[in-house]
Amino acid sequence: MPLHDDPEPVAVDPPGRIVLDEVSKKIIEQLQQDGRRPYASIAAAVGLSEAAVRQRVQRLLRAGVVQIVAVTNPLHVGFTRQAMVGIRVDGPIDPVVAAVSALDEVSYVVVTAGSFDLLVEVVCTDDEHLLRVINHHLRAVDGVRSTETFVYLDLSKQTYTWGTR
């Protein structure tokens, strides 16, 4: 039984930014600690019914605020090569972002300010695969001026528990 009414957990302010209420932030923080935490446990922690928490999580998923996935260390599940690739772009950046994001090997894409326009993380089975991705996929995208590759030697820290603001 809810301890209070359950308002809409996700709102959009005028510039199009998603705004979360305090209960949604608490739910997200619970899921960041353990993505498999039972809805009943989350409900007890945030003061809603289990059904209300389930509905809120579904709305947060649909809005793209959260994803619930199993996070792995690629080096432990058969991918022996990871790299961060800095990309410099000529012309509009959006088509390059779309083309790069569509590649299966790409796990992370950010637009940056600095010496690179994009930082792209790739996960590959081996060095030959990485070479193919860089030469035949990334560098082949219209608008890519240059790339610089930073090969990972070890994944020392990977966390998603930064909370909410």
The strand order across the widest sheet is 4-5-3-6
| Annotation field: number of helices | 5
> Helical percent range?
25-40%
Number of strands: 6
| Helix-strand category | alpha+beta
Low-confidence region ranges:
1-5
Order of helices and strands: EEHHHEHEEHE
Q: In this structure, how is the largest beta sheet organized?
A: 4 strands, antiparallel
Into which percentage range does the β-strand content fall? 15-25%
Radius of gyration, in Å, reads: 20 Å
Description:
The chain is an alpha+beta fold. About 20% of the residues are buried. Helix 1 crosses helix 2 (about 40-45) and helix 2 crosses helix 3. The chain has helices spanning about 20-35, 40-45, 50-60, 95-100, 125-140, and strands spanning about 10, 20, 80-90, 105-110, 120-125, 145-150. A 4-stranded antiparallel β-sheet has the order 4-5-3-6. A two-stranded antiparallel sheet has the order 1-2.
Keywords:
single chain, 165 residues, alpha+beta, 4-stranded antiparallel β-sheet, elongated, disordered N terminus
Give a topology summary.
Blueprint: E1 10-12, E2 18-20, H1 22-33, H2 39-46, H3 50-62, E3 81-89, H4 94-101, E4 106-111, E5 118-124, H5 127-138, E6 144-151
Helix pairs in contact: 1-2, 2-3
Question: Quick recap of the structure?
Answer:
The chain is of the alpha+beta class and 165 residues long. It has helices at residues 22-33, 39-46, 50-62, 94-101, 127-138, and strands at residues 10-12, 18-20, 81-89, 106-111, 118-124, 144-151. The chain has a four-stranded antiparallel β-sheet with strand order 4-5-3-6. Strands 1-2 form a two-stranded antiparallel ribbon.
